[in-house]
């Protein structure tokens, strides 16, 4: 049973560029959440997708957007990258009505 | 979500029980206590959650005080691989509500020593 997978593992971009990160949820899960983790901090909630719609959003600007596909996989897009966007981006999947969220290994984004 | 307070760091000897405390004095009646851990450079791993009764699974035990204002995560026989940051999180139920996110603090860095 495959867990949550994310791609790519690492990514280097320059300021002003755009990036797309991808997530495949754990088998049987239908809900995907995205988190940003800066160095030395706990993960911060970006948004959650269910039934291809954004269900809840954290305190992140509109430069952060997402999408969920019919197969429940998801993308996180960040436009106009800033140096402060450098972080570990984590995807978590869950099943609607269940409390546990299962995290992927993350994508390490470095903005130069 | 109610705020949680955890010590920034703890040490434990290998093979001994690790008891990680968490204070959540403002918890409300429908909020659960969750524990996750994060081993260096990996994604957080779900450990256990509970509402008011003590819970046990293959990884750990969760003891919640009767007034629900604090809890303790117990790793019964800590190993070196249990060295990680442990996060205590309080969150409302996922069913029927709108409170879906997990709010992480800085957690407790547990170091298991040989």
Structural overview:
- The complex is a heterodimer of chains A (112) and B (114).
- Chain A contains no helices and eleven strands.
- Chain A is mainly β and 112 residues long.
- In chain A, the strands form two sheets. In chain A, strands 2, 4, 5, 6, 9, 10 and 11 form a seven-stranded mixed sheet that branches. In chain A, strands 1-3-8-7 form a four-stranded antiparallel sheet, with no helix packed on it.
- In chain A, a hairpin with a 6-residue loop joins strand 4 (31-37) and strand 5 (44-50).
- Chain A starts with a strand and ends with a strand.
- The model of chain A has no long low-confidence stretch (mean pLDDT 94).
- Chain B has 114 residues and is mainly beta.
- Chain B has strands spanning 9-13, 18-23, 31-38, 45-50, 55-56, 61-64, 70-75, 84-92, 108-113.
- Chain B has a five-stranded mixed sheet with strand order 1-9-8-3-4, with no helix packed on it. A four-stranded antiparallel sheet of chain B has the order 2-7-6-5, with no helix packed on it.
- The mean pLDDT of chain B is 91.
- Classes of the chains: A mainly beta (112), B mainly beta (114).
Sum up the structure in keywords.
heterodimer; A: about 110 residues; mainly beta; 7-stranded mixed β-sheet; 4-stranded antiparallel β-sheet; about 0% helix; about 50% strand; globular; B: about 110 residues; 5-stranded mixed β-sheet; about 45% strand
Characterize this entry briefly.
The complex is a heterodimer of chains A (112) and B (114). Chain A has 112 residues and is mainly β.
Secondary-structure blueprint of this entry?
The complex is a heterodimer of chains A (112) and B (114).
Chain A: E1 5-7, E2 10-13, E3 19-24, E4 31-37, E5 44-50, E6 53-57, E7 64-68, E8 74-78, E9 87-94, E10 102-103, E11 107-111
Parallel strand pairs in A: 2-11
Antiparallel strand pairs in A: 1-3, 3-8, 4-5, 4-9, 5-6, 7-8, 9-10, 9-11
Chain B: E1 9-13, E2 18-23, E3 31-38, E4 45-50, E5 55-56, E6 61-64, E7 70-75, E8 84-92, E9 108-113
Parallel strand pairs in B: 1-9
Antiparallel strand pairs in B: 2-7, 3-4, 3-8, 5-6, 6-7, 8-9
